[in-house]
């Protein structure tokens, strides 16, 4: 496996774990009526490669599941990123 692909997988692992826990932290803050993480930041983490972590965080903590931009946006970002990942690993150059 080329070095670029290894680094990409490490990056994706880190960003998805961070995104997953960020969604959990925001849910905890919502329950405690504390200062919240901006929706733009939550979506931004998904766009930066954390879409799997965002989707899992939404499902695990039942967080942001009724907001249309999360309910439909996160899965769309996830599909687009998976397609890009497939192109990166199996596409022709």
Overall description:
By secondary structure, this protein is mainly alpha-helical. Helix content is 80%, strand content 0%. The protein is built from four helices and no strands. It has helices at 3-31, 39-61, 68-71, 73-90.
Could you give a quick summary of the protein structure above?
This protein has 93 residues and is an all-alpha fold. Helix content is 80%, strand content 0%.
* Topology, number of strands: 0
Question: Could you give a short account of the major beta sheet?
Answer: none
Unreliable residue stretches: none
Q: How much beta, percentage-wise?
A: under 5%
Radius of gyration: 14 Å
Main structural class:
mainly alpha
Helical amount among residues, as a percent range? Answer: over 70%
Distance between the termini: 16 Å
Give the helix/strand layout.
Blueprint: H1 3-31, H2 39-61, H3 68-71, H4 73-90
Offer a few descriptive terms.
4 helices; mainly alpha; 80% helix; single chain
């Amino acid at each position: 496996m080329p070095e670029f692909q290894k680094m990409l997988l490490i990056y994706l692992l880190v960003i998805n774990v961070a995104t997953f826990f960020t969604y959990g932290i925001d849910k905890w803050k919502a329950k405690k009526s504390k200062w919240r993480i901006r929706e733009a930041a939550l979506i931004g983490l998904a766009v930066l490669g954390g879409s799997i972590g965002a989707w899992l965080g939404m499902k695990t903590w039942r967080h942001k599941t009724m907001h249309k931009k999360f309910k439909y946006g996160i899965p769309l970002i996830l599909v687009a990123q998976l397609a890009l990942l497939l192109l990166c690993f199996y596409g022709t150059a």
